Amino acid sequence: MKTNLVSTWQLGSIVILAPSKRTLNAVIMAMILITLSLVFSLMLGKNGITPDDFITLFKGEASPYQDWLFWQSRLPRVLCAIGAGAALGISGAVFQTLTKNPLGSPDIIGINAGASAGAVLWLWFLPNQPIAIGALLGAVSVLTIMLIALGKSWQLSRQLVLLGIAINAFAVATVQLILTLVQREQAQQLFGYLSGSLANRNWQDVSVIFMTLIIFVPLLLLLARRLSLLTQGYDSAIVLGSRVDTAQWQALLLASGLALGAVLTVGPVAFVALVAPHLARFGHSRLALLRSAIYGSLLLLVSDTITLTLPGLFRMPVGVLTALIGGLYLVGLLSRQVTNK
Question: Which of 1, 71, 123, 154 could bridge across to 150 with cysteines, CB 3.0–4.6 Å?
Fold first, then answer.
């Protein structure tokens, strides 16, 4: 039996599940685009790597400046974009599956807002300490509040989104209040972080995001079958033998962990987790997660590449551009839903 997304082949009692030709072609095309975007991202911008620089690097004849530019400046930046985009894409796909809501994402339920509030509070009280620590504490606090408020028996489709709206409102108010109290230099520092940025990334940031992926993605793939059953409805999943409450708790924690890793690496970048799963188009759950990772990487990397090509007057953090793209996509999505009704 074949579908648009998955091909199932049966040999006697053995069932083989494989991506369909259409799915495989889409994944291959996305990987090619990621590779091209990676190369262009390295080459573009004020301090881009030229083709001659690539040749001298691979020959081992590069100058100390060329070595630093490639290994310490540009390569960590593109790897952080790929890793953080993948983490956000998978996290968004899981949240949309759990909430059965196309708008479900870490942004919507308040994790990014909690990270932003934690960052501004941390800078206000401990101005000489890394902002990322405050962002982590803020995001973890939001997750803790969310888990306590939801309790042991819950339906994510309603409660999680409503709770996220309340958390977002409180966090935004906190950020606005603190920004009126801090010094101008601190406010400028906060703006760069709160917007989400790939500037000045290093190998420590790369290790954080890829360790996050290595830890959380395999665990989520083990839950893929249960997540697939959840798409058929809460009651249907129970009838089919899935331990729904346990699966939802586990998936929520793992998806939140991926979002936290991305926030630690690039700050609260908006809308990548929302848009990437829509670009991936859901099908078989494992394939959906992997496709969401690919499209999340592609979206963040292409956005960063675009920011590198903008004139100095229009240069912006990558999070500002993804917010613009995500906002336009959200308007289009809502308009299409209204039209269909």
Answer: 154
Cα angle value 66/84/118 (rounded, 5°)? 110
Strands 6-11 and 14-19: antiparallel
Instruction: Tally Cβ neighbours within 10 Å of residue 145.
Output: 16
Q: What pTM, to 2 d.p., does this model score?
A: 0.85
Q: What span, in angstroms and rounded, lies between the C-alpha atoms of 302 and 297?
A: 8
Quick one: how far is CA 79 from the chain centroid? 14
Quote the distance between the C-alpha of residue 208 and its chain's center.
14
Single-letter amino acid, residue 128: N
Alpha helices in 267-317 (DSSP H): 272-280, 285-309
pLDDT over threshold 70, residue 1: no
First to last CA, the chain: 32
What span, in angstroms and rounded, lies between the C-alpha atoms of 295 and 27? Answer: 9
Q: CA 301 to CA 322: how far, in whole Å?
A: 10
Encode pLDDT of 180-238 as tens digits. Answer: 888 888 788 788 788 889 988 999 999 999 999 999 999 988 887 776 666 655 555 55
Domains along the chain with CATH numbers: 6-340 (1.10.3470.10)
